[in-house]
Amino acid sequence: MVKILLTEYVVSTYGLNNYSYISLLAEAYAMTRSLVKVLKHAGVDVIITLSNQIHNMLGRDIKVDDVVIIEGNYINVLEELREDVDYAIAIAPPHEMITIVEILRDKFLGPSYDLTKILSDKYEATLMLRKCGLKTPLTLSAYSSSEKISIDEVSFPVVVKPSMSAGAECVYIARDKDSFVESIRKITKCDPKGYVVIQEYVEGFHGSISMVVYNSEIYLYSLNLQLISILNNRIVYNGNVLPLRNKDYVQVARSVVEKIVKCLSGLKGYIGIDVVWNDEDMYVIEVNPRFTTAGVAISELYPDLGKILIGYRLPGKERYLGNLVQGYAYIIKNVDHIERNCLDSSSPNFDLCLDKLITIGRVAEFKDVLNILLKQYGDLVKNLAYNITIVSNEIN
């Protein structure tokens, strides 16, 4: 039987030191559980890595063939595990992802090391995507807050973010020079190398495209609505609703994934593409060379995702998720409920805290999701980057 290593960096290293990725913990745990479920459905043996603290608190909720408990050096453990498995699926923030892919090498069910390295750097990735003929926001880069940055090419507002980050961490909108300087100061502390990326802010619907690709062939893809809010000039990821079924938007999404697959050699496995679209075009914001939170919602609708992730080709010609399943799935990250004390693994309510942070569901129609958002998450809807109540018919 095929043996798969599933390793997610946040749940594998949580509690080992002064932890900086605590805000990603709920998503990390949700992705791990979803991947275990669909991989077991695919009939493979699954080995996962968990930190000792996560295993003690949550390990009972994840049913796998083997759990490797991380108590020391995570990277050393991966080097040992690599020899014991057929393939590996890895999830990590960009900086750590590069190291992990270098270790896993040909066992990694994802892009090549060189391509992962480029895609993990938001500035370098944007330059490459532009060469591929994709529409991207005008983008600048700087090394530090002390470096003189010319923004004459970009009119306010602009998006300011680390070159390497995950989950919309440390991403701000600067609407004038003062907020721009302040954003630069904050963001240089978030990036592992102190690099800052400045992009023009694109008005429109925020979304993502999830796709699985092998041998330059698209095995599955889905256009997803992202729930992106703006709080105190900070861009916050609040979840996804998927799959969208507006034929025009799906056709544009198909064109985007075809261009990316044709242009980027070494692309493989699950890829997440962040996009913003409006009446003019669909802009590619970044490409994530790994499983993303939208995959959690896909797993709710499509149990065969696990088979596709390990390279099983679907019979028939249909590849769009919206034509393969009925209904919609959603994942909502309840940012207002995040409390660091609650997310301390020594807290007696640690597991309950995680359940509060992520809400996952399935409904028959898109309007059902809209009703849930309006009734239960009014503040989230109020702060969305677009007006979902006006455009709900158009996006779907």
Automatic annotation (TrEMBL):
Gene3D superfamilies: 2.30.36.100, 3.40.50.11770, ATP-grasp fold, B domain
A GO CC term assigned to this protein in UniProt: cytosol
Signal peptide: none
Domain ATP-grasp as annotated: residue spans: 126-314
Example GO molecular function: ligase activity
InterPro entries: ATP-grasp, ATP-grasp_PylC-type
Keyword annotations: ATP-binding, Ligase, Nucleotide-binding
Domain of life: Archaea
Pfam (any one): ATP-grasp_3
Coiled coil: none
Protein name, entry field: ATP-grasp domain-containing protein
